[in-house]
Write a structure and sequence with these properties.
With 138 residues, the protein is α+β, with helices and mostly antiparallel strands. The chain has 5 helices and 3 strands; from the N terminus they run H-E-E-H-H-E-H-H. Helices cover 38% and strands 17% of the residues. The chain is elongated.
Length: 138
């Protein structure tokens, strides 16, 4: 289940990066209040109403529902995804140095294998009491 969730998360992150870096434009042509033409990537074509009425007639006409208009939604992609970490401020350098120092010293004394009962001998067993009384630890 965890591997499946990991795969779904990685695919969704790659799709997100793809959409962030891709440029696209959506063009729409409205005749009055209704959407006449919708285009993804190239300009929308004009309808027949635009040929009948010119822009000057639309300015003087009281009924502006006959006028055509164009709308465009554009998304410019992001080109600079790599950020440079070579220039660190003084505070960031202090943080990195203290983090590394504390992380290295975290495991400093763990390489010795400390056995507290090394100097003591085990007791001499005359009889095996568990076998005699048939009591076994499970």
């Amino acid at each position: 289940m965890r591997l499946f969730f990991h795969k779904i998360l990685s695919i969704s992150m790659s799709v997100l990066v793809f959409f962030i870096t891709t440029s696209f434009s959506i063009n729409m042509h409205f005749c009055g209040e209704t959407l006449a033409e919708f285009s993804f990537g190239h300009s929308a074509e004009a309808c027949s109403m635009e040929n009948e009425h010119s822009d000057l007639e639309c300015e003087f006409d009281m009924n502006k529902d006959n006028c055509c208009s164009d709308a465009q939604i554009a998304n410019d992609g992001q080109d600079d995804l790599k950020t440079s970490y070579t220039n660190l401020s003084f505070e960031q350098q202090i943080f990195v140095a203290t983090f590394l120092y504390s992380y290295i010293n975290l495991f400093d004394g763990l390489d010795k294998n400390i056995v507290p009962f090394r100097d003591y001998t085990p007791p001499f067993l005359i009889r095996d009491f568990q076998k005699i009384h048939e009591t076994y630890l499970i």
